[in-house]
């Protein structure tokens, strides 16, 4: 029996290493491109000077702007939800998460008419102050609107992180400070905000990753960020090797950002000291301020896009082919279901091996696979997949059979790339679920003669069901919204709701994008509402 248990654990750990390394292969192939010689006559020097550095500066400024605006929108709402009891508090807590259902590219599309309203003002600037002033303010207004709309739909990342920090040790420390005579402002800036810093850094890193991953919104606004730069280098110059080096440097910078976030989070820890104090009853003035703080991000990130899309749907005269529409919906559901199942299976193998094998190597592999995948922008991941496919073609030469299949933009590569990028979502929630299960259950199962694999299946898996269900919904939502990766790797004729929306807008039919956009937003919002509502019920129980 002991030999059997050892054997099953060994095979499980070997399978976990194989799966974890497979998830890292596209990323490793891009890092190798940093030192691989480029072909003769390449445009790397020209790309470096005219595309890479301008795109890096723009991406940095846009990311900083979106992060700042996200904090201004999310932190006041999280503070009110975490510290005061007011009418409608639980409803606002769910609504504040729902802007995540609006992809950034759809948030950018719905600002079209708002930006057109600025044209008379810009024309008057050009007439009165010249072309230079006109170009300057046109650029400022365009970038400001883009940053504000991206912040509105990405602010839930900051809200969730800040709410978690303010609701636990932050509330205990704030209550102690208030008892010692500190005022509310001093308590907030001197106690609550420093305690919440690690959680806020984690939320900000997610916002930064999403901004760097975006392609549809920045292309619609004409802002050439690094993702747009990868597209232009790849398809504009027709040099995949040069684009791979471009993407490799972007990946290296993003991985350094992820490492910095992990370092910040790892240096700060706060021990729980019992349940937090009860919520304060809000006065009428605080209730009004809480409604304003909660209503602003919801109105901007969810209400405004839904209102504009609803208006466009009634004004659109484009006859949407029902078959195309139904096909895009079916493809989104199919892709979401397959990638969700793949990510959950990989998470159970890799994260489960780290728990049952108790090895530091498996634990590090699980963390690295999650961080590196999620931090990699979609366009960069696509280039990694193409580099990997090219390497495999050299091993399986020939235009037919395996060689031809590996080079094509097949459905397999799309699922593989999405699983490598979103493994972090399933892995993180699975690890949290396993951490909440006492090690005493492992010892009890071992005393009853159960091996690690048998105890994982019969004991841990049933207890993990709520975490796996939440991970499944979040994975499904992320995959349905994903645009750049799906756009680059989809097979010919394969349309999802995201690519269908992008294609319609790219053809200049802005009103016609309302139908697929509304369906995509409502599909994602329904899933997020279910997860958040179940989370509230578990918290109360």
Outline:
By secondary structure, the chain is mainly alpha-helical. Helix content is 81%, strand content 1%. The chain contains 24 helices and two strands.
Characterization of this structure:
This protein has helices spanning 2-33, 44-83, 89-95, 104-109, 112-116, 119-129, 131-167, 169-179, 184-213, 216-221, 226-236, 240-267, 284-315, 322-357, 360-375, 378-395, 401-407, 411-435, 439-447, 452-463, 465-481, 484-489, 497-506, 514-540; strands at residues 84-85, 280-281. It has 541 residues and is mainly alpha-helical. The chain starts with a helix and ends with a helix. The protein has 24 helices and two strands. Helix 2 packs antiparallel against helix 9, helix 9 runs antiparallel to helix 12 (240-267) and helix 11 (226-236) packs antiparallel against helix 12. The longest helix is centred in the N-terminal third of the chain and has 40 residues, at 44-83. Strands 1-2 form a two-stranded parallel sheet.
